[in-house]
Amino acid sequence: MTGDGADADPIRIERWPDPACRFGFEDGTALLRAVNDPFEATFGPVTAGQPVAAAMADLGVTPVSTDGFEAVLSSDGPVRVRADGDAAADSGAKRYLARVVPSDPDGEAVLAFVPRPGEGDEGSVDIDVDHVASVVSHDLRNPLDVATARLRAGRETGDDDHFERVAAAHDRMERIIRDVLTLARGRDVVDPDETVALDVVAEDAWETVETADATLTVDGSLPTTTADADRVGRLFENLFRNAVEHGSTGPDEATESTDAVTVTVGPLGGTRTGFYVEDDGPGIPETDRERVFEPGYSTDDHGTGLGLAIVARIAALHGWSIAVGESTSGGVRFEVTGIEPESP
Questions:
Q1: CB-based burial of residue 210 (10 Å sphere; 0-12 exposed, 13-18 middle, 19+ buried)?
Q2: Between 188 and 286, where is the model more confident?
Q3: 127 pLDDT exceeds 70?
Q4: pLDDT attached to residue 133
Q5: Spatial distance between the Cα atoms of 284 and 305, rounded to a whole number of angstroms
Q6: pLDDT tens digits for 87-118?
Q7: Which long-range contacts (CB under 8 A, 24 or more apart) does 38-46 make?
């Protein structure tokens, strides 16, 4: 264990079962004091006295959704980090929750790393429980309020249209609940056991999305494969909704584009089996592409940040892979690979 001895360690990090390091501040810079054995076994050796941010960079330990490690040290809550160094690759878990635990008024503290639950499981995704709970409570509130108001109006007037709106609100709430279950329970709600023509599912999904002036082009025949048609439909819906909602905004995300978005779906070329969904909107900055599938990521203040996380979850639970890049027109292009076509 790196440091000046357990007897001098006020926080006793050697007793912690997960990686942990003790640090203090000098001239505003966080410096390493000591690390425990799980830290060195997981991330690699360090030298006492190094700046924490520099040491973490050398070890390949970086925040998932912040610009610098200083943000981890100043956060009041847990921050998701990834470990990409050689030692981390050998130790198993790749993502952790990092939390600063203050020690005493002298300014020293512990930085503790807790492995993310389910990390490494097939189809797993990083789930921020607090964020998902907030999304559910917020998103359910609107259709619940609609249903309550329409039910009251229907009882007073007897107009069947109000009851139809109640039914639609209930359908919306059911979709939200199923989305969260897809993230949280995975295989319990995804059952790929039927032959599915993906181009038919894509066209049906387009009809369920509010597309305004956007248009859909199906450029070639998509594979037919064994899948869960309902969940794959949700995958397409979320990709289409992402294209329509974000493709209507200019590159600075503050001005509306004057052109209607065109969304194109087609098979992948060459030896790859799968399909792509792309648009001619403003695209996603390259620096943000790795984050788009994380629950909670959204460039829209009103977005839930669950749509693309659900897409990635559904793909993974089918044994597929999904990647994001740039379309030929500068928009967003999602490619889904690993699909096994049904034999003719």
A1: exposed
A2: 286
A3: no
A4: 62
A5: 15
A6: 555 555 577 888 887 755 556 888 988 776 54
A7: 39/113, 40/1, 40/2, 40/87, 41/87, 41/91, 42/83, 42/87, 42/88, 42/91, 42/93, 42/113, 43/19, 43/83, 43/85, 43/87, 43/88, 44/85, 44/86, 44/87, 44/88, 45/2, 46/2, 46/21
Distances 1 to 13, 47, 69, 98, 115 between C-alpha atoms, Å: 10, 10, 22, 19, 20
Nearest CA among 90, 68, 91 for reference residue 79: 68
Give the pLDDT confidence of 215-260 residue by residue, as tens digits. 999 999 999 999 999 889 989 998 998 888 876 443 344 434 446 8
DSSP H or E stretch at residue 144: helix 129-157
Rounded CA-CA distance 268/344 in Å is: 18
What pTM value is reported for the model?
0.54
Q: Half-sphere exposure of 304 toward its Cβ, with a 13 Å CA cutoff?
A: 20
- Taking Cα atoms as reference points, which of 47, 121, 39, 55 lies closest to residue 88? 39
φ, ψ at 232 (rounded to 5°): -65, -35
Cα–Cα distance between 95 and 228 in angstroms, integer?
A: 29
At residue 305, the pLDDT reads 67
Query: What is the predicted pLDDT for the residue at 129?
Result: 57
Report how far residue 319's alpha carbon sits from residue 306's, in angstroms, rounded to the nearest whole number.
20
What's the full length of the chain, in residues? 344
Strands 224-227 vs 194-197: parallel, antiparallel or unpaired: antiparallel
Q: Which of 47, 42, 11 is nearest to 31 (CA)?
A: 47
Pick from 211, 326, 222: which is nearest to 280 by CA? 326
Q: What is the per-residue pLDDT across 330-341, written as a single tens digit (0 to 9) for each?
A: 899 999 998 988
Q: Is 256 helix (H, G, I), strand (E, B) or coil?
A: strand
